[in-house]
C-alpha cells in the first residue's frame, strides 16, 4: 500500500511533506527570481562572522549589485609603502638578502633615497624642450647660446629650443635666417632674397670688383613699428657681420 499523499516526500530538497520551492517562470517570474537572487547575495555578504553590514552594500538594478570593501586599520595608521625600486636590497649579495634585519634596515634607507633617485630618473624630462619648466627652459636657452624675446609665449620658446641644432648648423646662411625669422615671428610671412651675381671675363685683370654682398628681407603683411624693431634686431644677430641688408615691409592701407 502506498503512503498517503501528506506523508509522501516532496520533489525538492525540503523535508518530507513540504511543498517544493516555486520555480521562476517567464515574464514576471524572472523579476521575482532576480529579486530572490539579489536578496541571497545581500544576506550572504551581510551575514556570518566578519561579514559586511547591509548598509555597506550598494545594489543597483534588478539582478546587479556592487559591493564596497574597506580595510580597517583600527587605531593604528596604515603602514608606509616600501620602496618599489629596491635599489639597495636588490644589489646586496644573496647572503645578506636572507637576513631579515639587513633587509629592513636597507628598506628604511631606501625610503629616504627614493625622492633623490626619482629626480635622477626624471632628469632627462627636466631638460626636454617639451617638458622642461619655464626657468629650466631659460637655462637651456643660455647654454645653447640662443636669445629669446621675453614677449614670446612659452610654446614659441620651446619650439626655438627644439630647433636649436638646425639653427646652429645653418647659422650665417640664407636658410638659417629664414628659419630664425619663422621661429621668432611665426605670424609674419618672411622671404629672403640675396643680391648675388656672376661676373666673368677672358682677362682676369679686366674683372671689376665684385659688389658688396647684401640681401633683402620682404614681408607681404604690415608689421607694427615696435615689431619691426624686434625683427631688425633678430636679423642683425643671425646674419654675417660683413653683409648688409634691407627690410622691406608692406605698409598698411
UniProtKB/TrEMBL annotation:
One Pfam family of this chain: Tail_P2_I
Record field: compositional bias (Basic and acidic residues): 1-11
UniProt superkingdom: Bacteria
Region ranges (Disordered): 1-35
Signal peptide: none
Transmembrane stretches, start-end: none
UniProt cross-references to NCBIfam families, sorted A to Z: tail_TIGR02242
The protein's name in its UniProt record: Phage tail protein
Organism: Baekduia soli
